[in-house]
Amino acid sequence: MSSPTDETTSAEPVPASLDAGQRVAPTRTDPLVAAASRPIGGPLGEHAAVGRHWFWTPQRVGLALATLALMLCWFGKASCIQQYVDDSGQTQLDWRSGRPYVAMCYSDVVPLYSAERLDQAGAFPYRTSWVDDAGTPSAQVRYMEYPVLTGLFQWVNAKLAAGWHAAADAGWLPGGLPVVLYFDITAFWLAAAWLITVWAVGRTARRRPWDACLAAISPLVLVHAFTNFDTIATAFAATGLLAWARRKPALAGLLLGLGAAAKLYPLFLLGPMLVLCVRAGKLREWTTAAGTALVAWLAANLPIALTLNAGWQEFFRLNAQRGMDPDSIYNVISYFTGWPGFDGPLAPGQSPTWLNIVSAALFLACCAGIAYVGLAAPVRPRLAPLCFLVVAAFLLTNKVWSPQYSLWLVPLAVLAIPRWRLLLGWMLLDALVWVPRMFYYLGTDHKGLPPDWFLGFVVLRDLAVVGLCVLVVREIYRPAADAVRAAGDDDPAGGVLDRARDVVVLRRRRPRHAG
């Protein structure tokens, strides 16, 4: 290990191939984008007037494309909010004949409206409880199962839907079933959160603003923007990275802490920041970010934890007791090997102890390996690639990989490895997992698919993510292959780490030769 008095290793990238401040044009550097640009005139010309259009900037183009993608996603989910009048003259939600799976429009937002008791007038998350499987040995008292900010987000939208419904009954607004109004209001805010994500990615990329279009048109957005509530967390994580890139560690910590109160994963980004700050001797900035993140998380959680503790603990209790998810690698291994699993069938309230231990141990082992790479690479890695590796490691080793979790990787992947053809191929493959998943849930009795098809696609998705991780590590050890550094940048998302010199570097000892 080196010290401040040892010879330092600079984080300087390979020699710049562009003038300082010059934007990177994907139509010149990426074969796929260059080919796609031909119908509109081909790659950017040498004498093009870049940055002089009165309205259409790369940022606004990216937001426009994201808006189009979100509209298509809404239309894809709209089949699941169709209504019909039953024989008794009552308007009902049309989920007959397995519509959510056949039309592949399923969204957790719709069933959670009643499952989380959001349709009840006096209900409040973490206070309102109910009993699942009442009268059976598996009966359990249940509360809102989401982290605080996500739970309150659902409650506020339910109140807005109730207000809209009352105004519709009075003739002031168009009406619909309360659950339909709730879905549409929720989708509006989730769309706004994804637009914030795309905006933050474009700002963080700096000289590569067009890369935000990769996040905007991601096939994963077309399928999963409204599957659950994950775009809230991606917005906090992306803006947290942007604040860090702008050398505002306190703001970055605030955003990441609030993101962790909506979904746990934004907190993981503090790990790569710590590793790189140790290497660059910037622990003061990291401490500011981490301390602010803790304060923000506590500020969001303590009011509920102190007053409604039983409901607040529900998220942690369910995560501890939850078994292997159908999309997890553990379920794949169990199915194809015939191995019954870590603990076998669980009794009510019992936790899958060994599954939890193995999952946590594998994730911690991956984090240790990533930390070693961050401290031992010949050139200090960029922040975004290490963040991508940590989140990808969590998804690959976790016992749960809900399909919408893949959205977490999109902004990080765009900042880490902005290779359009490669990322679009991975995102398309990941999005296509939705098709066999829906027909797997439809069941073979209703002309669905057997598990083999679905789990086979899960394996392909996992292999694709592993391949991206291998590429990221390769580019860390070969900076000349890194598209960002090859253009002359060091670490656009690094903030205080950008072009900083190293203080602590792990070095392999050279063997001494007898002389």
TrEMBL record:
It is found in: Cell membrane. Signal peptide: none annotated. It comes from the Bacteria. It holds the Pfam family GT87. Residues 1-23 are annotated as: Disordered. It is a multi-pass membrane protein. Keywords: Cell membrane, Membrane, Transferase, Transmembrane, Transmembrane helix. The chain crosses the membrane at residues 179-201, 213-244, 250-276, 288-308, 354-377, 422-441, 453-473. InterPro entries: GT87, UCP010361. Residues 1-11 have a biased composition (Polar residues). The keyword Lipid biosynthesis does not apply. Belongs to the glycosyltransferase 87 family. This is Membrane protein.
